[in-house]
Every structure is written in structure tokens, then in C-alpha cells.
Amino acid sequence: MEILSQLWSLLGLLTVLQNVLPSQLLSLLHSLYESLQDLLSPYSYLEIPEFNGYCGVELNDLYRHVTLYINAVDPSATTCRRLTLTRSKSSTRFSFAVAPNHSVRDVFSGHTLSWTHHVDPVPDSLEERRSFVLKLPKRHRQALLSPYLDHILLKAEEFERVSRERRLFTNNGHGSYESGWVSVPFRHPSTFDTLALEPQLKKQITDDLMAFSNGKEFYHRVGRAWKRGYLLYGPPGTGKSSLIAAMANYLCYDVYDLELTKVSDNSELRALLIQTTNRSIIVIEDIDCSVDLTAERGSKNRKRSQPSINGHDDEDQQSGRVTLSGLLNFTDGLWSCCGEERIIVFTTNHKVNVDPALLRCGRMDVHVSLGACGPAAFRALVKNYLGLDTHALMEVVDNCLRSGGALTPAQIGEILLRNRGEADVAMREVVAAMQARILGGRREQVKDSQYCEVEAGSRSPESVLLRGSPENWVSSPGKKRKIKFLVRLRSLTKSDSGRRGVGDH
């Protein structure tokens, strides 16, 4: 009782002094007390407010990163007594946040740190003042602070990239306005685990994508724009669109499906490029069919050799459409550097119809040839559709594949989907389709062989020599010697016919 009475007397004395002493002196005494407390405490405290400055208008980006970082921490590993569970419409997962005026511990480089989420009401207002206070050992402050903040930024950006909802954009024909894109949630289920690709090609693509996404410092150091171009070519039904979706899901990127027929001119194309965001895949499907770019150079050459009619040039006819030069600037010009971490993907069924200027390195860095299913790709389809790792007819299928009875993933997938409830029936139908292709589909085989000749002949000499380069990434191994022999024979035939034509003339 005596101690309590002394405490009450002390509190009464402090209350009297607070009412008697001037406010300036009280502020000085309070600051001296805090300085003495900081001097005796073994910890340092750093406050990160929600807004920058005293006006409270500009958001503090570091506060947002700390919030994301704490959300990324495993809640089961924290010692916080109270967490707030939320989920927004733009997120694909639940988020754990620290409740107001509670703390959460973290460990970095063998040291224990803590974050306290302070939420204080603003006097005479319904608003609240929020901030995070970082508590760390004072002795190791200089060594811990900078690496720890860098660690927070990396983890926060990774969490934001993975947790946010991905979008699928398409141009609406008004690229010169504020927003030339409209979007829907991107929820394509294709992944590299379910993709019907040979393991070697799958590993090459995933390694290249991972090296690109982690190559920010490298691209800046060598002075190149942080972008990469992919060309996917092959017959219909070989999985070009599924591969694009798997790439987007693998990197957690948004997808911009650019429809060139809706773009009026090069200026609108440039405006659409500026409106795309970082960490995105820009797709132009069927590049040889979207606009007539291949014949543009030939028409320019004819215009140089022929005089203009009535003194007017034909450039007025091209001013109202997308030209080859505009598309080249879109992929590799100065305006292509207005963003970072973007992948541009072209698809085509016939690589020979694409202008060579679009295919060189720096524009289309990786050329991926997609063809019929190989043994590993077929087993992946059987696993996906039928849930089987093996079957009695697998050896028969392998023999059919070696004999030239390979089908496209779309053809095999349709058979398996139709008979997904009866695995034996599905496998027998696949074998029957492959045998029919071998025995009765000779015309289709001839078309495929001609397609392979054209595709092999369209490759540059450098890509043929550099077998490990991305220009030789094919979905299934073929008979390279036979293809080279056919290409050589075809070139000799052309040259011989050319000489005959000159002699006859």
C-alpha cells in the first residue's frame, strides 16, 4: 500500500508539472527521455510511414513492399498472435497481414528482426495513420539494413508477380486513345507439365525463359533492351497456342494478343506498344496471314524500276496501314525499349512466308519448330487424358511412330478425349489412326515431307551449322541427313532449270 501511495503521489506531481510547465520545456524533456532511452536500448527502430512527407498525399512505395513482404512470410512460421486474412478480386490467393499494433518476427543472416504495424487514429478525423516500425540490433545496423531492404524488395516483387491475377488483352481498334486494349482474366490451364513436347525441347525453352526473367542486370550491363523474341512455326494442331499459354503461366506474365488487322497504321501500332505493361507476352498469331508484309519489299523494288503514274507515288496507299518497317520498329526499334521484361511471340504455319527481316536475331531470337508427337509427347498426352503411365499398346505406338505414322497433338488429343472413359478403346483408335496414316495416307505423307523440305530450306546457313542454337529447336528429331539431301537436290534442280531457261531464251 505504501508503494502504491508513492506511485499515486508521483503521478499527481507529473500531472501538476504538465499543467504548470510550458509546452516547450515539456517537449524538450520528452526528447531528452527518448534520447536516453535510445542510448540505453540495444535496438534501433526505423519507421516506414504509409505516405511520404507531412502532407500525406504521395504513397510510400517502401510501405507497399513491406506489406507484400510480410504477406509472403509463411504465417505458420511467425510468432504473431493476430493476423488479418484478406483476398482481393485481382489476386489468386489469400493474403496474411499483420493486425494493427501487432508484431511479427523475421530472421535474416542469423539475426532476429521484427516488424510492428502501428495504426493510430488522426485527431478530429475518421482517418488513420499507418506505419511499419522495423526493430533490428543496433550493433549490426550498418551491415544488415541495406541487404535486408534489398531482400525485401526482391521477395515483394516476386510475391506480387505470382499472386496477382493475370490478364489476357486484345486490341479494340482504338489504339490512339487512352487505352487501346480490353482484357479478361487469363485462366488457361496449359503448363509445361501438361504440354505434349519432347523433354529436350521443353528443358531448352524453360531454361531460356528462366534465364531471361532473371537477366535484368545482364541486359542492362551489355546495353540491350530487356526483351526476347520467339517464333513458333509448324503445321496446325501442333500446340503453338498451348505453348504460349504455358510460357505465360510459367513466368506469371500477362498476355497481349495483338490483332494486326484492327491496327490502322504504324502510329496506332506504336501507341499500343507503349500501353503494354512490363512482364508481359505480346503475341501476333499467323504473322504471314495477318497483313501482307512479305510482298512489300517486292512492290518497293517494282516502284523503283517503274516510273510513277501522274507524278504521284504509291506511298499514299501505304500510309493508312501497318507496314513492314513499322512492325520492325515495333519489335526491334527505339520504341521497343519503352518497357522491360517483355517477350514478343510470332506464330506461323509456314515459316517460308515470313519476311526474313523479321526472323533475324534481335527480333526473333528463338525459333521453335513444332511438329507431330514423338514418343515422350505421346506418353504425356496419355498421362493427361487417360491417367496412365503405361499401356500394353505403347510398344505398338512406338513402332508406328518410327514407321512414319505420327499424328499431331490435336489429333491424338481428340481421340483420347472422345474415349477418355475407356483407355483400351482410346489406345486402339490411336493405333488404328496411325496405321491408317502409314498405309493409306501416303498423300498426306508427301505433303508433310514437302513441308519439311521448305522449312529446312528456309533456314539460314548459320542456323544449320549451329546445331545448339535456338534456331534449331525442334519438337521431335527428324532425319537431318535426308532433309539436307533433299534441300541440296532441290537447289541443284533449281539451278539447272535456271540455266536451261537462260539458254533457251
From TrEMBL:
It catalyses: ATP + H2O = ADP + phosphate + H(+). PROSITE patterns: AAA (PS00674). One of its GO terms (molecular function) is ATP hydrolysis activity. Pfam families: AAA (PF00004), AAA_assoc (PF14363), AAA_lid_At3g28540 (PF25568). InterPro entries: AAA+_ATPase, AAA_N_dom, At3g28540-like_C, ATPase_AAA_core, ATPase_AAA_CS, Mitochondrial_chaperone_BCS1, P-loop_NTPase. Residues 1-22 form the signal peptide. Residues 226-370 form the AAA+ ATPase domain. Residues 298-318 are annotated as: Disordered. Its cofactor is Mg(2+). GO terms for biological process: response to stress. Gene3D superfamilies: 6.10.280.40, P-loop containing nucleotide triphosphate hydrolases. Belongs to the AAA ATPase family. BCS1 subfamily. This is AAA+ ATPase domain-containing protein. It comes from Cannabis sativa (Hemp).
